[in-house]
Amino acid sequence: MTDLTPFDFDGQAVRVVTIDGEPWFVLADLARVLDIAAPGRLAARLDEGVRQTHTLPTPGGPQNLAVVSEAGMYEVVIRSDKPDAVRFRRWITSDVLPAIRKTGAYGTPALNGPELLAHAVIEAHALIAANEAKILALTPRAEAFDAFLSTSGDLSVNEAAKILSRDNGILTGEKRLRAWMQANGWIYRNEADEPRAYQRRVDQGALAERARWHHHPETGERVIDTPQVRVTAKGVEALAKSLTKVVDRGELDVTGGDAA
């Protein structure tokens, strides 16, 4: 069973189709709201389990459109550099999903009197139990996305390399990525041979430096270590674009050899 529901986010349509009781989001709508270019290319990067095509009514007649599951929607959100991405995700989880799931069923026969009351009680208990289970399942995932998309959310170079390999087909690793970043004006090594971020990359919002600390093994005092270079969501996207162009031109093989 399918049912198309249009929602509005800041004046932009977000269509959600219910397929076998589960919400699927029109990918083109998500890409437009989140300022992500080339939704077709984005769809190709998503796993088959979280995307499919579905025939939906449009002003020009029925069309086969790419739709993504709830899990796929979260993957799309994390790819956006738009500041409103977190607010959009919270709107989905607090407004859209509850609105879709508030009845829990379609086509229920007309009831009245005691039967209607009994049915309402049963549905309410089932809905509460289902929502509690979904909240428990979604909370860690939602918190992880919020942390990544927040102003302080960033990744280690190793984590960035894994995302580039998984989502962009650039099969590089931490050592190769560090070497490329150092050769191309992203990071450098200071006199103490410690990796540091170029200030212009920090100003661009592509890199950040986070101070680390540890407790002195003898005194127990808190000791500040050398800041660690971190890659922001914007930086991952910029690296993906640059490395894709470099590999396509054949100027550098970041996928060959030891990708560790």
From TrEMBL:
Domain annotation Bro-N: ranges: 1-104
Protein name: Bro-N domain-containing protein
InterPro entries for the chain: Ant_C, BRO_N_domain
Pfam families the UniProt entry points to: ANT, Bro-N
Provenance organism: Oerskovia enterophila
SMART domains: Bro-N
Domain of life, source organism: Bacteria
Organism ancestry: Bacteria, Bacillati, Actinomycetota, Actinomycetes, Micrococcales
